[in-house]
Design a protein that fits this description.
The structure is a single chain. The chain is an alpha/beta fold and 239 residues long. 41% of the residues lie in helices and 16% in strands. The protein is globular and about 45 Å long. The two termini are 31 Å apart.
Length: 239
């Protein structure tokens, strides 16, 4: 994908989203950076990105709520007539077992981790089409392509399986418009919560830099014909 371009990164205030935002920041780029939480944290990312020469706009929304997703979409439409890259990164991993999660929290987690991916991708299709060839990159999970039991963080894992289906489905639906849709599936990262549950075959947890390598490939000219793919970046962990 040729620079300069306009990109929207959700969940850009911290951890992997922050690293993605700063990795994309360079002269001429226009970054729309979203976060749900601290304005201070997102402003700090924006300051760093601007120091690297990027034009930056910050957006706040709770993506688990439809009304706030609609507001965010409207803000993006007001800011730009084209969107070259959409990175659906926002998500939350609940540190609770299945029998401890209330129904309302279950629904909220599905909405944040999966429904928001559908809503934003579908609603922003016209802007992606206007910038074609353009890219959508979804963040999944190293087990997102397998139907297995997950007693812990169950709604998260259900949602990431759903994101995999959405990635492949949008890839087919958008192909004629010149929009590729792919997915990066991280393993246990430096910011991951809880214990890894097993030793790392590669001898270490993953880093944000490991994920950025996959991102660079999916943004490259060489990946222009790659769509509907899932790249697992886990150092052979959780396979």
């Amino acid at each position: 994908m040729n620079a300069p371009y306009t990109a929207l990164v959700t969940g850009a205030g911290r951890n992997l989203g922050r690293s993605i935002a700063l990795h994309l920041a360079r002269p001429g780029q226009c970054l729309l950076l979203h976060a749900r939480g601290s304005q201070t944290a997102l402003d700090a990312v924006a300051t760093e990105a601007r120091a690297k020469g990027a034009e930056v706009h910050t957006l706040h929304a709770d993506l688990s709520k439809e009304v706030e997703r609609e507001r965010l979409i409207g803000q993006v439409q007001d800011l730009t007539a084209r969107l070259d890259l959409l990175v659906n990164n926002a998500g939350h991993y609940p540190e609770r077992d299945l029998l401890d999660i209330e129904a309302g929290a279950f629904d909220q987690l599905l909405a944040l981790n999966c429904t928001a991916v559908f809503h934003l991708t579908r609603a922003l299709q016209p802007l992606l089409r206007a910038a074609a060839p353009s890219r959508v990159i979804n963040l999944g999970d190293s087990g997102a392509d397998r139907v297995v039991a997950h007693v812990r963080a169950t709604p998260y894992h259900i949602a990431k399986l759903g994101v995999t289906v959405l990635t492949r489905s949008f890839a087919v639906a958008f192909a004629a418009d010149g929009i590729t849709v792919n997915q990066i599936n991280p393993g246990f990262l430096e910011s991951s919560v809880g214990g890894p549950g097993s030793s790392f075959p590669a001898g270490r947890a993953g880093t944000f830099t490991d994920i950025l390598g996959a991102l660079d490939y999916l943004l490259s000219e060489q990946a222009g014909y790659v769509s509907g793919a899932s790249i697992t970046v886990s150092g052979a962990w959780n396979l």
